[in-house]
């Protein structure tokens, strides 16, 4: 039987259906009475994303350093890829949206490794289950695995029980540029990668990149709601 912590997270995820997500963004300097609480299962008010520039409470400004076992059982730090912009994806084998993301993550690793990006999966699950699944499906990027220590890593991102998947995008200095809660899709991923690239090239600060990405994400969501809209 899986630990109660896993069951609780799975139940929350199933109830929410992973249909709503936030980008861990809040409006710049919102009035106290209008501050937006961070919840992976609460939709943002209209226009909030376009004003976003700050990470939500609980999300650290830099990638926390934690160590988990890799597929070979060897302890490995998440900081084992110095000088790389990180795409850190938290997932579990029992999570259907997590499984659906894996082909895209494989593709991102293949297409963007030469431009300085590194995908790392963090599986909060049992080691044997992850090893078997990774071999069966053909995951082509590094995987770190933890049970309670995996949950401890999750809690360092302010995501105690909000469910999976979630993905953290950092620049080469390990600063968190974007945070995506929910299933990641190709068009969203490209916007988030563009934001990180602009930070790495010194064109924008992380806050400026978040605001620019939020505007594009808002336009993407609006276009998705209108199938007849012209491409961006």
UniProtKB/TrEMBL annotation:
PROSITE patterns: THIOREDOXIN_1, THIOREDOXIN_2. It holds the Pfam family AhpC-TSA. The keyword Zinc does not apply. Residues 44-198 form the Thioredoxin domain. The keyword Cell inner membrane does not apply. This is Thioredoxin domain-containing protein. Keywords: Redox-active center. GO terms for molecular function: antioxidant activity; disulfide oxidoreductase activity.
């Amino acid at each position: 039987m899986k630990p109660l912590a896993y069951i609780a997270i799975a139940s929350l995820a199933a109830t929410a259906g992973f249909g709503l997500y936030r980008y861990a963004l809040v409006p710049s300097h919102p009035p106290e009475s209008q501050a937006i609480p961070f919840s992976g299962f609460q939709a943002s008010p209209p226009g909030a994303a376009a004003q976003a520039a700050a990470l939500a409470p609980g999300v650290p400004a830099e990638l926390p350093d934690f160590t988990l076992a890799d597929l070979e059982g060897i302890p490995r730090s998440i900081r084992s890829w110095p000088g790389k912009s990180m795409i850190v994806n938290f997932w579990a084998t029992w999570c259907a949206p997590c499984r659906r993301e894996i082909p895209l993550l494989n593709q991102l690793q293949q297409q963007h490794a030469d431009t300085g990006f590194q995908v790392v999966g963090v599986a909060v699950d049992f080691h044997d289950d992850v090893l078997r699944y990774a071999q069966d499906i053909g995951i082509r990027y590094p995987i770190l695995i933890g049970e309670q220590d995996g949950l401890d890593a999750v809690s360092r991102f302010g995501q105690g029980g909000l469910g999976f998947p979630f993905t953290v995008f950092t620049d080469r200095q390990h600063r968190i540029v974007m945070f995506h809660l929910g299933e990641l899709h190709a068009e969203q991923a490209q916007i988030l990668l563009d934001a990180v690239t602009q930070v790495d090239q010194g064109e924008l600060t992380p806050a400026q990149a978040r605001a620019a990405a939020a505007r594009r994400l808002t336009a993407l969501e609006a276009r998705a709601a209108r199938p007849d809209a012209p491409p961006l």
